[in-house]
Amino acid sequence: MKIRNSINGNKERKVFIHENKREESVLVAIPSLNWSILFSYDEFGEGLADKMKKTLGQKADQEEAEELVQRILQWTREM
Predict the structure, then answer these.
(1) H-run or E-run covering 37
(2) How many CA atoms lie within 13 A of 19 on its CB side?
(3) How far apart are the first and last CA of the chain?
(4) Whose CA, among 10, 11, 15, 43, lies 20 to 30 Å from 60?
(5) Gap between the Cα atoms of 50 and 52, Å rounded
(6) Is residue 9 scored above 80 in pLDDT?
(7) How many separate helices (H) and strands (E) can be counted in the chain?
(8) How far apart are CA 48 and CA 37, in angstroms?
C-alpha cells in the first residue's frame, strides 16, 4: 500500500492506494472524505476519470475533486 499526501490550498488529504496484482485491480481511499473506489486495470481511461470526478464531487468541491482525480490517475499509472 502506498500513502500519498495531496495538498490543495490549505487542505491536506492522505490518499491510500493499494494495488492487487493478482486480481489486476486498484483500491484508492481518502478517509478524510469518507471516499473510496475500486477499479480494474481495464477501466483506466476517460470513463474512470469521469466516474471519479462525479463521486468525489459529492464529497469535496469541484476544483479539489478534479485535482485529486488527476493526482490519483498519475499515482496509479506509476505503480
Answers:
(1) strand 35-40
(2) 12
(3) 10
(4) 43
(5) 5
(6) no
(7) 2, 4
(8) 10
Answer whether 33's CB lies under 8 Å from 46's CB: no
Query: Using one digit for the tens of pLDDT, what is the confidence trace for 18-68?
Result: 999 999 999 999 999 999 999 999 998 779 999 999 999 999 999 999 999
Among the listed residues 16, 40, 42, the one whose alpha carbon sits nearest the alpha carbon of residue 28: 16
Task: State residue 52's pLDDT score.
Answer: 95
Specify whether the CB–CB gap between 33 and 60 falls below 8 A. Answer: yes
Pick left, alpha or beta for residue 53 (phi over 0 → left; psi -120 to 50 → alpha; otherwise beta): alpha
The two beta strands, 35-40 and 11-20, are: unpaired
What's the one-letter identity of residue 40? S
Give dist(CA 5, CA 21) in Å, integer: 23
